Backbone:
């Protein structure tokens, strides 16, 4: 039995649940009899243990099970009868006068889903991005692909590719191998010494003073120079201090980039080495990536606008659950990176803002989909998977991978649903076209 729903504040509600002790005892007796059929005890055959012993061993546990079942069922029935959409899980506690006239009384405190009011979408301004892929972007991508396939030859030694040019000293772009030792106040420090240490000059892997001292050296030459570690250097023992390094250059190798020819095209997966086919493939991949990034920018603009135009209260329970989910995802990611997170604190407020946005958008999207019939259909899901699969070597295998698992398809369905909402909002809102340069859109990826 349940009382009328009591409104506490905003989304919080409370129901009083009354469970009859006689009904609990009756169900416990039934479960004890079932348990007695297989119960074991020293000196007794299985199923022949006296009921008193079975009750002593399992009674408390079964009573707790039955009580939880009945309270859960009573709460579910009460929420259904009151036509409530419960958000999160109820907090169920026995009341101070828990046992009254053969009954046990509980209070169930919970939140309900909010009313979501969507403002006037025709007044919303959305920035819709666009970007073009030109021959210049294809050429730049080819240069990046060449750099990814670079190989090195000993400088000064002539082979089929040459000898690295007339300058036989270490220069930017060369891979050098050297021995080094660093000292602070005349004493070597941990991590300040290495033999046969390779790195490429100009990639920024080493500190500027270190690279500058190496440039211009010949094989066999040494140099001693000061190096100032910045105050925020990751090595605390040397941060803010000046060390004296001595380096000895042992090898210089110059970078040889592959020629853009049929062999290069074959290395990129063009079987016949056709250069035009290679460029067409690169253009297709770039256009696909540009399309995805443009869509992501536009989607972010739509979501930002929806948050501004929608009115709703966010259930605290959903906010807390999502913040904890984000914390768990962060822990897992850090573990996969080899970081020990056992004793690392994860304050709840660290994820609150992100969780609030996620939950808020989830409620807004759900309302827009429900009101406007924007559910993802089978054709849309299939088209989305097919398009995604195009970028893989064996598209059919990718399609099979998604359609063989309902959970994977659910992820695609959620993406299609978001796309439906974005297109719906764009059809209603004031759309401002924004042309974005390829480099800006791709960010650091375009720099190689």
Residues:
């Amino acid at each position: 039995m349940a009382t009328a729903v009591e409104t506490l504040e905003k989304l919080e509600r409370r129901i009083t649940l009354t469970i009859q002790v006689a009904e609990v005892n009756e169900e416990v007796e039934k479960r004890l009899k079932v348990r007695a059929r297989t119960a074991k005890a020293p000196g007794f055959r299985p199923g022949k243990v006296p009921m008193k012993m079975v009750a002593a061993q399992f009674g408390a546990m079964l009573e707790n099970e039955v009580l939880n079942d009945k309270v859960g069922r009573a709460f579910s029935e009460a929420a259904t009868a009151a036509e409530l959409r419960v958000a999160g899980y109820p907090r169920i506690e026995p009341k101070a006068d828990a046992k009254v006239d053969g009954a046990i009384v509980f209070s169930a405190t919970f939140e309900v889903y909010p009313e979501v009011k969507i403002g006037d979408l025709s007044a919303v301004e959305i920035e819709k991005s666009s970007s073009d892929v030109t021959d210049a972007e294809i050429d730049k991508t080819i240069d990046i692909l060449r750099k990814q396939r670079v190989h090195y030859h000993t400088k000064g030694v002539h082979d089929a590719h040459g000898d690295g040019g007339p300058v036989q000293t270490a220069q930017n772009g060369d891979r050098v191998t050297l021995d080094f030792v660093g000292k602070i106040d005349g004493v070597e420090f941990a991590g300040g010494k290495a033999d046969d240490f390779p790195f490429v000059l100009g990639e920024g892997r080493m500190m500027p003073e270190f690279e500058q001292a190496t440039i211009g050296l010949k094989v066999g030459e040494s140099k001693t120079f000061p190096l100032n570690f910045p105050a925020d250097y990751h090595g605390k023992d040397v941060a803010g201090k000046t060390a004296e390094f001595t380096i000895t250059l042992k090898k210089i190798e110059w970078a040889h980039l592959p020629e853009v020819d049929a062999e290069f095209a074959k290395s990129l997966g063009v079987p016949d080495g056709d250069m035009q086919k290679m460029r067409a493939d690169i253009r297709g991949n770039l256009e696909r990536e540009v399309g995805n990034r443009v869509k992501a920018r536009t989607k972010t603009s739509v979501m930002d606008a929806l948050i501004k135009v929608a009115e709703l209260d966010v259930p605290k329970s959903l906010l807390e659950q999502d913040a904890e989910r984000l914390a768990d995802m962060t822990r897992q990611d850090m573990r996969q990176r080899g970081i020990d997170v056992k004793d690392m604190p994860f304050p709840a407020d660290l994820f609150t803002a992100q969780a609030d946005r996620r939950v808020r958008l989830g409620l807004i999207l759900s309302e827009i989909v429900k009101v406007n019939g924007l559910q993802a259909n089978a054709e849309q899901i299939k088209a989305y998977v097919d398009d995604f699969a195009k970028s893989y070597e064996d598209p059919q295998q990718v399609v099979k991978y998604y359609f063989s698992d309902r959970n994977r398809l659910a992820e695609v369905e959620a993406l299609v649903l978001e796309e439906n909402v974005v297109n719906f909002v764009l059809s209603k809102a004031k759309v401002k076209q924004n042309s974005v340069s390829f480099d800006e859109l791709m960010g650091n990826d375009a720099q190689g």
About this structure: The chain has twelve helices and 13 strands.
